[in-house]
Amino acid sequence: MSPLSVLLVGIFFSLADGGHVLAFPGEHSHWLNMRTIIEELVRRNHKVTVLVPDASPSVNFNSSRDAAKFNFLVFKVPFSKSDMTSWMHDFIHFSMYEAHNSSLLRRFLVPMTILSNFAQIGMQQCEAMLKNKELMETLRNSAFDVVLHDPMAPCGDLVADILGLPLVVSMRFSFGSTLERDCGQALLPASYVPASPLPYSDHMAFVERLINMLMYMGTSVLSRIQWKMKIDSFYTEVKGSTSSFCSSIGRAEVWLIRTFWDMETARPIQPNFFYVGGLHCRPANQLPEDLEAFMQSSGDAGVVVVTFGSMVTHLTPDRADVIATALGRIPQKVIWRYRGETPRTLSANTKLYDWIPQNDLLGHPLTRAFVTHGGTNGLYEALFHGVPVVGIPLFGDQPDNLARLSRRGAAVVLHFNLMTVDELVEALHAVIHEPSFRSNMQRLSSLQQQQPVAPLATAAFWVEFVMRHGGARHLRQASHDLYWFQFYSLDILAALLLTITAGSALCWAGLHCVLWRWRWRSPTKKRD
């Protein structure tokens, strides 16, 4: 058989054997990453069904563009879109405007309260999904091959368990890396792997290692208490046998972690963990005519792109004015994604847009710098195209993301509430005019692009692998089957301590006996 025949056989085999994927997407940027993966799976001739609540604030299941690619299965939930978004808005507002002036205790308690409210909404979504007999019957009859699950979407792992389907998890991180460590059995030594989202390097001072250890321990304890109190009983009820959230998501055959070693610190890697950061990155497309004309009008000075993500649509007037004033003092033209009230100090060189083709702008040869909040998606696009960054972190993992780029000499980081106009102008001047920032970012870009297999291809391959083989059990570690005291070898340590103690006691008893007999005989010899 000729090589061409073999190729044609392989192609037709793939077309005839397309699988069926059940996807549980998260919201906002999580959905953008999930959509990138499932679009690639559709391109490879697989069928994808997206299970989504009718109150989803970011998955537009009425979109004709997406409906042409995916089958949306929409179920009713007892809450609205505003309920879904209110907890996130509360969290963002606290992080942006209150946290920096709050006590350490309040900075801990307020986010925990907000996240607890989100967990309650998540449990309502779980009940609406798993206790919907018609929906579950539809899922059982749909002959799925795999579940692709973002843990931001609740109970996707439980559905996979009930349907007897292999599970693939796609995620950026969990707070304190609790899911990765406690459920996925990832080995993350606290001595040199900083817990997400602590902005530490892998070379920590003593105090940083102490905080890191406390972060690991505290998040593990609090997470397990929350799972035990609010989730595990529901899992047990639905399954009809003893179960838990951690054991359920720990069934995952493959974990797709949306970061890579260009930004992430090196650490031991589990066989079923694959780092696919930047999977959404691609070469730039041609810009719309109006944007291209604006870019060309900048001349040699170039353009600065500014955005604070899809979830921060406006800023307080004083912060918006600081940013607008600083942008007006630079010679570059500025494209700013902003939907709030037009800042009073907005200059003629700055143009506001409700939406921008971010990737295509960052890939344009006239783009000189990127002002961003530090979201993972945007940073990877800047990294992919080699554009230096001025970072203004707002919430979540953004301080950690930007700290990583700053340590690599590719970004200048400012404090959102404390930065002045002069500081922002100086930061922009530095990243635009000091060659080291662009060269360092281009070096990271080469690390991202020069991989043996592209991140998106890696993600798609392992989803297909799990579908073909019904799992990836050969990659699963035996640690999943051990009790916690076996995992940490505490039973071995106890046995060794017991043996040493018993041996020491026997030695002491023997020595005591010999000494006693010697002392008893000694006077007798003297009398003789």
UniProtKB/TrEMBL annotation:
Q: What is this protein called?
A: UDP-glucuronosyltransferase
Q: Cross-referenced Pfam families, in alphabetical order? A: UDPGT
Q: Which GO terms describe its cellular component?
A: membrane
Keyword Glycosyltransferase carried by entry: yes
* Superkingdom, natural source: Eukaryota
Which PROSITE patterns has this protein been placed in? UDPGT
Q: Which reaction does it catalyse?
A: glucuronate acceptor + UDP-alpha-D-glucuronate = acceptor beta-D-glucuronoside + UDP + H(+)
